[in-house]
Write a structure and sequence with these properties.
Elements (H helix, E strand, L loop, with lengths): L1 E2 L7 H16 L5 E4 L5 H12 L5 H25 L4 E4 L6 E3 L8 E4 L2 H8 L3 E5 L2 E3 L5 E3 L4 H13 L4 E7 L4 E2 L11 E2 L1 E3 H9 L7 H10 L1 E7 L7 E4 L1 H8 L9 E17 L4 H11 L7 E3 L6 E8 L4 H15 L3 E14 L9 H11 L6 E4 L3 E7 L3 H13 L2
Parallel strand pairs: 1-2, 1-9, 2-6, 3-6, 9-13, 12-14
Antiparallel strand pairs: 4-5, 7-8, 10-11, 13-14, 15-17, 15-18, 16-17, 18-20, 19-20
Length: 406
């Protein structure tokens, strides 16, 4: 059971979560509970660090950020204990979560679950701090934004033999066809495949961390996203073939959901020499600095030169600009152009594999609203477009109406 920051934001909510966990215990389960930092604690700690320095040391930043989850696990432990149940809270390192050495965005290498098993055998409820682990040098590391999801799914994959199940509790009742804050007619999705959820998460939907979905798919962990504050059924994330079996039909909806990502910057390196190895140089330098690139477009060559454009996230803007200034000089390119006022909208669905014309419908819906498309990226189950950020709401409404009727 994993509870997000909104679920443990106040003492009253923590007490409510304690009762939910105890209910599972009474049903005969041995709960392992993962919690995030309370409310906006992580953002507040990051802001505090930046009041000290514009460039916080990554190791010390991880040391700071890890304290948020420790507040949650200790308070939840107290709440459960006060209700008469045995419980123990564990930090990531105490729970045996070992990571690589990439501070602020570490990857889990292995989980040594001996301590958790020992405590479960004693009849205790085990609470684990999400979002954190320990590297080979015994330093605390954090797992990146949404890392508590990853903690929970990785623990489910490690601790449970079969069937593997992880419940993600949040402030919404599940995954929707679009952000319900923008689209009033958005519908809750009852069941969604790993691939579709992965595309939604990587395209900007903030319900689940994409890395957690990757681990769930690899180890066949079923995830149920549900509300902490409602008894209504949530959204099951599982294998595509399982969804078809449960629905009892072969033909699925063409589009499962629509997502957006406002955390986008578009870069263009102009008049790059048209010769082998140029793209490798640009993206190789970005990779060395652990910069993730999203869309990439290379224009047709003219006079033995072309432009290379790509998108990445806002939080690496300064790092990317510095790298490109260096690469521009080395390659003899003429300039660097960037645009911070863009966003990405995406449609996702495994059904589009067998339906021609989906892209045309998307482009036509946007064109009808006079929305210009700056970049396009496609996969087997996703089509994404870069547009001006000010047009995001209009684009989302147009696409939802096109594919869901409202």
């Amino acid at each position: 059971m994993k509870f997000g920051g909104s679920s443990v934001a106040t003492p009253e909510k923590i007490k409510h979560v304690a009762k939910l966990v105890i209910e599972k215990k009474k049903e005969g389960y041995s709960p392992v509970v993962v919690v995030s930092a309370p409310g906006d604690t992580t953002d507040e700690l990051i802001e505090l660090a930046h009041k000290i320095t514009d460039a916080p040391d990554p190791r010390e930043l991880d040391m700071l950020l890890s304290t948020g989850e420790q507040v949650s696990i200790s308070l939840l432990g107290m709440a459960i204990k006060s209700l008469g149940h045995n419980v123990i809270s564990l930090t990531g390192s105490q729970a045996g979560i070992y990571t690589d050495n990439q501070h602020t965005n570490a990857r889990i290498v292995r989980i040594e679950s001996k301590k958790i098993y020992e405590e479960l055998k004693k009849g205790k409820i085990v609470i684990v701090a999400g979002f954190q682990g320990v590297n080979p040098y015994d330093d605390i590391t954090t797992l990146g934004r949404g890392g508590s999801d990853l903690t929970a799914v990785a623990l489910a994959a490690t601790l449970i033999k079969h069937p593997k199940k992880c419940e993600i509790y949040t402030d919404v009742i599940g995954v929707y066809t679009a952000d319900p804050r923008i689209i009033r007619g958005a519908k809750k999705i009852d069941k969604i495949s790993y691939d579709e959820m992965l595309e939604l998460a990587s395209s900007g939907a903030q319900v689940m961390q994409s890395r957690a979905i990757e681990v769930a798919k690899k180890y066949n962990v079923d995830i149920e996203v549900k509300s902490t504050f409602s008894k209504k059924g949530g959204t099951l994330i599982t294998r595509e073939e399982m969804i078809k079996t449960m629905k009892g039909k072969i033909e699925e909806p063409i589009i499962t959901g629509i997502s957006y990502d406002k955390n986008q910057v578009k870069f263009s390196v102009t008049d790059v020499p048209d010769r082998p190895g140029v793209a490798a140089k640009i993206f190789g330098e970005l990779a060395k600095e652990n910069v993730n690139v999203d869309m990439i477009i290379q224009s047709a060559a003219r006079n033995k030169h072309n432009d290379i454009s790509f998108t990445t996230s806002h939080n690496v803007f300064n790092k990317v600009l510095k790298i490109l200034e260096k690469v521009k000089t080395e390659l003899g390119a003429s300039g660097i152009i960037y645009d911070k006022d863009v966003c990405k909208v995406s449609i996702i669905g495994t059904g589009m594999r067998s339906y021609p014309g989906i892209a045309a419908r998307m482009f036509k819906a946007l064109a009808a609203q006079k929305i210009n498309i700056e970049m396009i990226s496609t996969s087997e189950i996703k089509i994404s477009c870069i547009i001006k950020r000010k047009l995001l709401t209009k684009a989302m409404k147009a696409l939802h109406k096109e594919f869901f009727g409202k």
